[in-house]
């Protein structure tokens, strides 16, 4: 029988996988089986940590708002502020409130005092 030359498809697939893993260290960037395993792990971690990142940022925003509100000296807390915002139907999310708290504390004080009245 004559020799059959293999096509380029498998080689193209492997080079595509190697490009993904080019920044990995050691065998994780050289050996095809190891690259495939590491790629799966990397994609799983990326998917999981996208949700975790959202969670962490929300915690950070809540902490910043709470710190500025309690700094005012008035016996407010974060939960009372958010509750009053919902009662007044003011649509300010936690990210915007945290930015206001950092950049302009007086503005946040005005918002919280205006809500209480």
UniProtKB/TrEMBL annotation:
<dbReference type="GO" id="GO:0006412">
    <property type="term" value="P:translation"/>
</dbReference>
<dbReference type="Pfam" id="PF00453">
    <property type="entry name" value="Ribosomal_L20"/>
</dbReference>
<keyword id="KW-0934">Plastid</keyword>
<dbReference type="GO" id="GO:0019843">
    <property type="term" value="F:rRNA binding"/>
</dbReference>
<dbReference type="GO" id="GO:0009507">
    <property type="term" value="C:chloroplast"/>
</dbReference>
<dbReference type="GO" id="GO:0005840">
    <property type="term" value="C:ribosome"/>
</dbReference>
<protein>
    <recommendedName>
        <fullName>Large ribosomal subunit protein bL20c</fullName>
    </recommendedName>
</protein>
<keyword id="KW-0150">Chloroplast</keyword>
<comment type="similarity">
    <text>Belongs to the bacterial ribosomal protein bL20 family.</text>
</comment>
<dbReference type="GO" id="GO:1990904">
    <property type="term" value="C:ribonucleoprotein complex"/>
</dbReference>
<keyword id="KW-0689">Ribosomal protein</keyword>
<dbReference type="InterPro" id="IPR035566">
    <property type="entry name" value="Ribosomal_protein_bL20_C"/>
</dbReference>
<keyword id="KW-0694">RNA-binding</keyword>
<dbReference type="InterPro" id="IPR049946">
    <property type="entry name" value="RIBOSOMAL_L20_CS"/>
</dbReference>
<dbReference type="GO" id="GO:0003735">
    <property type="term" value="F:structural constituent of ribosome"/>
</dbReference>
<dbReference type="GO" id="GO:0000027">
    <property type="term" value="P:ribosomal large subunit assembly"/>
</dbReference>
<comment type="function">
    <text>Binds directly to 23S ribosomal RNA and is necessary for the in vitro assembly process of the 50S ribosomal subunit. It is not involved in the protein synthesizing functions of that subunit.</text>
</comment>
<dbReference type="InterPro" id="IPR005813">
    <property type="entry name" value="Ribosomal_bL20"/>
</dbReference>
<keyword id="KW-0699">rRNA-binding</keyword>
<keyword id="KW-0687">Ribonucleoprotein</keyword>
């Amino acid at each position: 029988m004559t020799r059959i030359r293999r096509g380029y498809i498998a080689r193209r697939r492997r080079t595509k996988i190697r490009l993904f893993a080019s920044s990995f260290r050691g065998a994780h960037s050289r050996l095809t089986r190891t690259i495939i395993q590491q790629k799966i792990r990397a994609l799983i971690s990326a998917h999981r940590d996208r949700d975790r990142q959202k969670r962490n940022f929300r915690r950070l925003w809540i902490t910043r708002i709470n710190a500025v509100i309690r700094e005012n000296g008035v016996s407010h807390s974060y939960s009372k502020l958010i509750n009053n915002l919902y009662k007044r139907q003011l649509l300010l999310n936690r990210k915007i409130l945290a930015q206001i708290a950092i950049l302009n504390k007086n503005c946040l004080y005005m918002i919280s005092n205006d809500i209480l009245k």
